[in-house]
Amino acid sequence: MDQMVINSGDTAWMLASTALVLLMTPGLAFFYGGMVRTKSVLNMMMMSMISIGVVSVLWVIYGFELAFGYKANSPWYGAISFSGLGGVVNDFTNNGGLYPIPVLVFAAFQLMFAIITPALISGAIADRAKFTSWAVFVAIWSTLVYFPVAHWVFAFGNKVGDTVTGTGYLAGKGLQDFAGGTAVHINAGAAGLALAIVLGKRVGWRKESMRPHSLPLVMLGSGLLWFGWFGFNAGSALAANGIAALAFMNTQVATAAALAGWLLVEKIRQGHPTSLGASSGAVAGLVAITPACAFVAPWAAVVIGLIAGILCSLATGLKYRFNLDDSLDVVGVHLVAGIWGSLAIGFFGASSVNSVGLDGLFYGGGTGLLAKQSIGVALVAAYSFIATLIIGYAIEKTIGFRVKRDVEVSGIDLNEHAETAYEMTSSSRGGSIL
Amino acid sequence: MKLITAILKPHKLEEVKIALQNLGVKGMTVSEASGFGRQKGHTEVYRGAEYTVDLIPKIRLEVLADDAEVKAIIDVIVKTAATGNIGDGKVWAIPIEQVVRVRTGEQGSEAI
């Protein structure tokens, strides 16, 4: 290891990528915040912000070790250690092989994924969760669900010489998930489904209007997500190289195609392409290409994105059939597009574009890869759903998860945060300091 | 003295205001309002879910006038605000008992 030197190009790109991925979480706050009513926009945005606060601290204390430590040599978790990252400051990144970037850069990069995943779940329970209970949920869920699942999927083991130790279960089984279709999006989507069941419907759901209060905020949010996602996907190459370039281009074209696909469905079904549809389509495309971005050719990324846009625009209507108030369509967008993107590798995977990739069904690789992908999808979805149901009900039975009816009706911002987002009239500007 | 109240389509406010100023009207109060009449509401679609919006944004314009001027003012408002489409609004006048200008204490017609 002593002959290894830091590659400044790779390290610079990873530092930039890390900051890009952090920006996705405030971006998500805008995306979700614009979709709720004026009385709950601050709470909605705060549910994302508190994830930054809670998860960053847990990550330093034990989260990184639990996900990417290899001492336990277990396929299910990394290492149980409370070293606070103190012992690794001078190490290089080792994840199935050595990378010429400091491990702290890798740890910071992966932290941003750990932050946004619980934040994604919050859209399923908009307007109605106690804020402190949500913060407790984020801490427990990260510990019991995200950190271990990140190990299953993203931990390729500590490679010394020819020996690799501590490889995650799904990584070892050959699951291809470049940037988190399973660990991030299916994980968050299945958890969102579980929490929507635990908390129940909002007061007045389907009876009163719950229109998005600010579509420009939604579009701002989707723009920030798209921008940050280049770090999420292309940064997952852990290097400034051709694989990063492939992931970058695929991220762009899949997202563009999904945006167009969603609008096409709206134009045909309702007659009007909407701004919410464009924003939602973009996010659906980003989600779908996340696992596949470094394993498929750009033309395939267009197909994956287009299908994601069409599929998700149809899927978001299903919650009304199932009478489930997944308020901001975490299931319809993240779970559905996450599953589609993860399985799509089984069809479009091409070893010609990535030497560590495998050929999917359309490239003569048979169904082997599709089977591996299906196992990964099913395992992560099932574990996340069941674990989240248990954590959710445990919180509901102990400290309570849902706010009182009055709080929900009069506005969660005022009651949970003692703030309101907007001064609607000039006459409300008065008041005195106590 | 009468209080004339007009409910207008928001985009007609500017035209009506200028027409009233040309007629010699010295003051008015404008506020944002919402409501419905024969127009009922309209439908908006969000991620495929349809919402009926029945309270539509309108402008509420109020003018105080001497009895003799009321007819001319109402005529100008109606003429200017009309587009011929449903939802153009309404104008009505009601009698006023007392008007006082706050700064000077002038009363009645003097205060208009």
From TrEMBL, chain A:
**Entry-linked InterPro entries:** Ammonium/urea_transptr (IPR029020), Ammonium_transpt (IPR001905), Ammonium_transpt_CS (IPR018047), NH4_transpt_AmtB-like_dom (IPR024041)
Mainly resides where?
membrane
Q: How does it sit in the membrane?
A: Multi-pass membrane protein
Give the PROSITE patterns listed for this entry: AMMONIUM_TRANSP (PS01219)
Q: Which residues cross the membrane?
A: 12-32, 44-64, 99-121, 133-154, 178-200, 212-232, 238-264, 276-293, 299-318, 330-353, 373-395
Q: List the record's Gene Ontology CC terms alphabetically.
A: plasma membrane
Keyword terms of this UniProt record: Ammonia transport, Cell membrane, Membrane, Transmembrane, Transmembrane helix, Transport
MF terms (GO), sorted A to Z:
ammonium channel activity
Q: Where in the cell is it found?
A: Cell membrane
Q: What residues does the Ammonium transporter AmtB-like domain cover?
A: 12-422
**Which Pfam families does UniProt cross-reference here?**
Ammonium_transp
Q: Which family does it belong to?
A: Belongs to the ammonia transporter channel (TC 1.A.11.2) family.
Q: What is this protein called?
A: Unannotated protein
TrEMBL record, chain B:
SMART domains associated with the record: P-II
GO annotation terms (biological process):
regulation of nitrogen utilization
Upper classification of the organism? unclassified sequences, metagenomes, ecological metagenomes
* UniProt keyword ATP-binding, yes or no: no
Note the subunit structure: Homotrimer.
GO MF annotation, one: ATP binding
Q: Which UniProt keywords apply?
A: Nucleotide-binding, Phosphoprotein, Transcription, Transcription regulation
The coiled-coil regions, if any, are: none
* Identification of the protein by name: Unannotated protein
Q: Which organism is it from?
A: freshwater metagenome
Cellular component, GO annotation: cytosol
